[in-house]
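Practice problem: predict the structure.
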Amino acid sequence: MYEKWRSAREGGRPVVKHLVEGAATAVVGLALWLFTADVHTPVITLRKVGVVLMFVGAAQLLYGAYVGASARDRR
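Answer:
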């Protein structure tokens, strides 16, 4: 049950996965924020969705960096 957490703490592939996912999410959010100013949707604007995605991507990047750094310290 805890194998994926254990491998993330040891600095395995989940660290790279978090970094790649965070970067991709932040880039998609940046693209939405930059290029959807004229698109109007009924509930929420795509620019606001882009800002939220940029923050989520940054959080994933920070978490991946934290897990990678803490895994390096344990070795």
